[in-house]
Amino acid sequence: MELTQDKTILNAMEPIVINIFEEHVLPNRTLKCDCNKCKLDIILLTLNRVQPHYTSTQVGEAYIKALYMNSQMLSDVIQELARSVLIVEQNPNH
Ligand SMILES: [Zn+2]
User: Fold this and answer.
1) What are phi and psi of 38, to 5 degrees?
2) Distance 13 CA to ligand 1 centre (A)
3) Which residues constitute the domain of residue 78?
4) Residue 72 has what pLDDT?
5) How many domains does the chain have?
């Protein structure tokens, strides 16, 4: 069973953080630098600080949205994203 190649294991926080970044942070905040490298750094920094939530790739976007819409997760992730934005803006990786 080639678990890693099939990518059967997925951290649901990956799409969640990207989703929240695009839908809740970017519309409300102008980034000092909005290149893809800075955006990726913001997402990676955030992912390293929030609790991972492992699942399988079978789950759809609806499941992932339900996971954060009805919980503390949304505000936690927004808070971590805001913090990451500040860090990346102060120390751009390029
Ligand atoms: Zn940049």
Assistant:
1) -65, -40
2) 23
3) 56-86
4) 84
5) 1
* Residue 64 domain flag: yes
CA of 83 to the centre of ligand 1 (A): 16
Least Cα distance to 33 among 82, 73, 92, 79 occurs for 92
Question: What's the pTM?
Answer: 0.83
* In the chain, beta strands by DSSP E: 9-11, 54-56
> Tens of pLDDT along 11-67?
889 988 999 999 999 999 999 999 999 999 999 999 999 989 888 776 677 777 787
**Position 25 in a domain:** no
> 33 in a domain, yes or no?
no
pLDDT per residue as tens digits for the range 61-78: 777 778 777 678 889 999
Q: How far is the CA of 90 from the centre of ligand 1 (A)?
A: 11
Q: What distance in angstroms lies between residue 60's CA and the mean position of ligand 1's atoms?
A: 31
